[in-house]
UniProtKB/TrEMBL annotation:
InterPro entries, A to Z: TB2_DP1_HVA22
Coiled coil regions in record: none
GO cellular component term, pick one: membrane
Membrane-protein topology: Multi-pass membrane protein
Subcellular location as annotated: Membrane
Organism this protein belongs to: Panagrellus redivivus (Microworm)
Keyword Zinc: no
Renumbered residue ranges of the record's region Disordered: 1-23
The entry's keywords: Membrane, Transmembrane, Transmembrane helix
Family: Belongs to the DP1 family.
Transmembrane segments: 98-127, 170-187
Protein name: Receptor expression-enhancing protein
Amino acid sequence: MAAVSARSNPTTPGAASARKSTSKVSAVKPADAAAAAAAAAPAAAAAAPAAADAAGEAQSFAELRESFEKGLYNTGNPILEQQIVKAEQATGAKREHMAYGVLGVLGVYLIFGSLAQLVCNLIGFGYPAHMSVKAVRTEGKDDDTQWLIYWTVFAFFSLLDFFAEGIMSFFPIYWLAKALFLLYCALPQTRGAIKLYAKVVEPAMLKLDAVIEKYTKSA
């Protein structure tokens, strides 16, 4: 009977100690969970747009080619579509073959053409400028990051262009390479600017900030 009473009595030392331990665990767990959630929130917020963007990216050259050809058949512009159909009927060639031909001629001109610098910079300016204006009108900041990084890359190449004549003496496809790299940074199928930011710009800035902070404190 005494044993039964000890087990059923809520005021026994063992029961009281157990209740205290349980209350401490209950008090600590929510705090720990809140701290962990707060710490993980920035990473989750940063990963969410990246995952969403990755869904529309081409993961291989074959996917990039497929996306390009699909865009040729879904122009979204009736007037442009009508002109393309007329060109197909006149030449007997498919639109993708004509597009590849134009790109081939453009590539050759970027190597040997006298206005290769102008053509290259027009390629790197037109579409990104249009999309940057659209990004300013949106509320989200994901596209702002994309185009801020893109224009930083564009500005770097603009400085490098000062030495283009010397560069082309040993790297004659400079303008072609620049145009391809700018397209890689700008196109939604590749989103190279975001990748460049994550892999190069952000780590470099973190190291630079650490050096500045170190010398600021020592001063």
